[in-house]
C-alpha cells in the first residue's frame, strides 16, 4: 500500500469516529487533525484496534507540540495535559492493552506501523518504546547517522602555531575559545555553544581564519558560506563577522578570504517556496567546503536533516548557538539534544590530551572517561564578555538559566542600573501601555523628523516589547492593538487602520516573489515621491522599499513574542508576562527574553510566575539524547 500521500486519504470516505478520540478532542487534548489523520489511515487498512488509533492520534498531537516522537513508557505514567492516567489506561484496556508491552505488541501487529529494523514505508515507526511518524523517524536517523559518522572521523591535525598566533594572550584559566578553535578544526562537524557575548562569533572567525590559512599554505581556496535561520540573524552574523575580522592578528589576504555576507538557510538551500524539497539536496549538493550556521537553537529537525542532506561529503559543518535558548518553533530541539551533557561531560582523556597539546591549555584536568564520542564535537564557551561582573542582566540570566527562582528574584530587586521590575497591582487587568510605549519615543521622533531609513531602523531596533503569550490582554495581538491606539491618541498615528508613516510590521510567511522571509521586519515610510513604502533590511544591510499592497501575511510588531525575538538583540527590552500562570512560561522562555537585552531589561510580571517559570523546563521527546549521550 502506498502511504506517500497521506493527506489524500483525508479527502476520502468518512470513517467512523473513535469514541475516546472524539472525547479527547473535545477536552482539547487532541486537535481535529490528529484524530482525523489516524481515523482515515485506520479506515483505509481496516485497522480496528483502538490502542493503535490512540497511539497514532497522540503521536500526531505531540508532533504538533514540537515533539519528534512519543515515548509509550512516559505516556503510560504521564499522559498529556488534560488527560488523566486512569482515563488513558481505561481506553487502552478496552482493547486488551494492560501494559506498555501490550501496547507495543498491538502496534507491532498493525499494518500502519513499521519496526525501526527492518524499516518499511508505513505511516508510523516503532523504535523500542518510541513511536514516530515515518518522515520524522527518517529525519532523526539522517541526523543521527551524520553525527555518529563525523564524531568518530579520523581527526585532522590543525596547525598549532597558527592557533597560538590567533590567541596571543595567556591567562591562568583555560581559554575555552582557543580550545573551541582547536577542537572544531579537528573534526568535520562541530558545535560551539555559549550564552550571550561569550565570544561565539569572535571564536568562529578565528576558526575560519585558521582554516583559510591552512588551505592557503596548501595553495587551495576554501569556499565558505555563512547562514542563519532568519534574515535578522543573518544580518547580525554579517555585522559581527565583519567586526571580528578587523581585530584578527593575521595578514590582510587571509582576512579577505573570510566572507562576511550571511544568508538565510532557506535562501542558501534554494527555497522552493510552497514545497518541502529544497533545490539543493543529496542529488544537487551545495557548492562549498565550509558551512557556518549561527543561531542553531532555532533550527528544527526537518531543516537540520535537509541541511545535512545538501552538504557535499567533504564539507565541514560548524554550528553556533546558545543551547539554553528556546527550542525551534517547529518540531525538535536539535541543539539542546546535541549539547545535553556538555556542561559536565567534557572530553575523553585521549581527546583532552590532544587539545592540551594543540592549545597549551590544561584541558586534561577536565578529562572524563564517561564522556560519549559526541562530546568531541562540542565546545561550550563559559565566560561572557558582554556582561561584566556588575551586570544585572548577566546575573539575572544566569539565575534564571540555573532555575534558581530565589536568586532570580534577588537579581530583579537589586540591580537598578540595568534591571527593572514592575509587579502588577491587584486591581490591574491590562498592561500599562503608556509606560511601555515610552520606549518608542526616540523612534517616533525619528519618524516625525523623516530621518533616513537607516537611522529609523536603528532607532526602532533599540527597544522592543516582548510578550510571553499570543492571546489575551497581555498577548502580542492585544498589546499591539493597544499600542497603536495609544500612538493614535497621542497624535503620532493619523489612522491606525491604514498604513501610516512609522507603522512597523513583521512578516508571518516566506514570500518567494519578494525574496522575504517569515520574521523579516519592515518599517513604513514615504519614499522620495512621498509614496508610502515598507522598507526591509537585506542581509547585506541595504534596504528595499515595497508598496504596502504587495505584502500579504504580516502583523504589527511594536510588541513581538519572545519566540519571534530569537536571533535578535535590542539595547532595551521590556518583557511582559500574563497575569495568570501558563504552560508557555518556562525557564527557556524567560532566559531567551532576558538575553535579548544588551543594556536595559524590564520585567513586567508577578513573582509567583517567575518562580513557576524557573522550575518549568521545556522537554521535547526525541531519540537523539539517548542515542548520542546514553548509548555511548
Ligand atoms: N576573549 C575575549 N576577550 C575580550 N573580549 C572578547 C573576547 N571574546 C569576545 N570578546 C568581545 O565580547 C563581545 C561579544 O563577542 P561575540 O560577538 O563574539 O560573542 P557572541 O557569543 O557571538 O555574542 P552574541 O550573544 O551576540 O551572539 C564582543 O565585543 C567581543 O569583541
From TrEMBL:
GO terms for molecular function: exodeoxyribonuclease V activity. It comes from the Bacteria. InterPro entries: Coronavir_polyprotein_1ab, P-loop_NTPase, RecD, RecD_N, RecD_N_sf, UvrD-like_helicase_C. Residues 26-132 form the RecBCD enzyme subunit RecD N-terminal domain. It catalyses: ATP + H2O = ADP + phosphate + H(+). Keywords: ATP-binding, DNA damage, DNA repair, DNA-binding, Exonuclease, Helicase, Hydrolase, Isomerase, Nuclease, Nucleotide-binding. It is an enzyme of class 5 (isomerase). Coiled coil: none annotated. Belongs to the RecD family. NCBIfam families: recD. Heterotrimer of RecB, RecC and RecD. All subunits contribute to DNA-binding. PANTHER family: DNA HELICASE B, DNA2/NAM7 HELICASE FAMILY MEMBER. In the RecBCD complex, RecB has a slow 3'-5' helicase, an exonuclease activity and loads RecA onto ssDNA, RecD has a fast 5'-3' helicase activity, while RecC stimulates the ATPase and processivity of the RecB helicase and contributes to recognition of the Chi site. This is RecBCD enzyme subunit RecD. It comes from Marinomonas arenicola. The gene is recD.
